[in-house]
Amino acid sequence: MENTITLKQFLVQSQREGQDQIDTDLIELLDNIMSACKKIADGVKHGALYGVLGSAGSENVQGETQKKLDVMSNEVFIAATQWGGQLAGMASEEEEDVYSIPAQYPRGKYLMYFDPLDGSSNIDVNITVGSIFSITRCPEGVSDPKLADYLIPGTEQVCAGFCLYGPSTMLVMTTGNGVNGFTLDPGTGEFVLTHLNMTIPEDTKEFAINMSNQRFWEAPVQRYVDECLAGKTGPRDKDFNMRWVASMVAEVYRILTRGGIFMYPKDNKDPSKAGKLRLMYEANPMSFIVEQAGGMSSTGRERIMEIQPEAIHQRVPVILGSKNEVERVVSYHKD
Ligand code: AHG
Ligand code: MN
Ligand code: MN
Q: Among the CATH numbers 1.10.10.10, 3.30.540.10, 3.40.50.620, 3.90.1150.10, which is that of 7-195?
């Protein structure tokens, strides 16, 4: 037991070793995020025993029906982080507008964007869900950030992470110096370093996409998936496997563990939407993590983290994972 390193210890050590991105405020903020994740993990684990399953009977700004756990997780994230004095403001999937820190709390230098519960269609069927967060610096001199102050490209992220509520609860994060994974020890309540320097293999034989949308995809994605399906009999000369959990956190974690490619590409199902996933609290943090683990992330046409955001709930196509496969899909978009 004495050899274990907790997430807090890991961050303090990294700060001492001179990692510029990590300062005391960030460590405190991450400590509060950890508390939020533990509370959500507890809710998820108890499920029906806590009466947290099912619909909340409301809709979020994206017109999606909110689950009770979506609403609760959002409240938990806000309550756990707003008081600490590290945040100038936050933006959540479940909040239409950006969230101002209440006047009774001091304001800090960071902005946080979060998806309190990712994969919520999986809650009631007892399949892995998660939380995703992204942290940037609030623009210089701004203490009461307005919407425009939040529209910062993903390349400016100071930290990104997700917590996976699966068979074990895991927090995976980056501060721009590699990706590390921490497992929640249910006995001590500590996140313990278990996955040092996670890296994504460059090649893969596994792809993840919601095949039911096939008829709506653009030609480059049609071609890529057709070639995967053709396996040994096609131009790829190898058989592929397919997975679709419908929780991005679970798909990204799998890719960090054994490689793979994940796609929620542009489609013409609803021309008003460029993709399904949201740039600021899904695509950007996952792209930062994937790139830091040696993978690649693109819309098919541009690097996701370089997109200049235009709205908090903006949607983007997402193609991420093993470098050589993502490069291939990008090259098909150029053809
Ligand atoms: P959320 O539950 O936060 O709305 O996100 C769900 C997302 C993502 O996690 C997943 O990859 C995708 O939606 C699944 O979409 P389909 O149900 O269309 O497959
Ligand atoms: Mn989500
Ligand atoms: Mn969500």
A: 3.30.540.10
